[in-house]
Design goal:
The protein is α+β, with helices and mostly antiparallel strands. Helix content is 53%, strand content 21%.
């Protein structure tokens, strides 16, 4: 590490003492590349912000729908039975169960409870 510092120091001193520099064309190309990079970066940031906002809105709608379903405060849909099909040996048997069906139009969630 001791050898690297003097070598780096000499290089920097030589470059500062030199009269050589970049041409105008090189400088303009470097500025153009930097501007394009910043433009792409800002576009990515805007897209990411839009995606996050959209996701947050969907989550709010989902949780609101879940709360409504748990409270069962929405009106019934009119459907009042559930058909359950089961069978272990390949024979299909079905049973009708009377249920209350609740739905939330905003979140498209559906919940049901067995009628007493």
């Amino acid at each position: 590490m001791k050898k690297i510092k003097p070598l780096l120091y000499r290089r920097i001193q030589t470059k500062l003492a030199s009269n050589k520099g970049e041409t105008l064309a090189e400088t303009l190309v470097a500025v153009l590349i930097s501007a394009v990079g910043l433009l792409l970066l800002s576009g990515m940031i805007m897209a990411a912000t839009r995606i996050v906002d959209n996701g947050q809105q969907k989550m709010k709608t989902y949780y609101k729908g879940m709360t409504v379903m748990e409270q069962k405060s929405v009106p019934e849909t009119g459907e009042n039975h559930l058909i359950v099909k089961f069978g272990s040996t390949g024979e299909a048997t079905s049973k009708n169960i009377n249920v209350n069906v609740y739905s939330d139009k905003d979140s498209s969630l559906v919940s049901y409870s067995k009628k007493e």
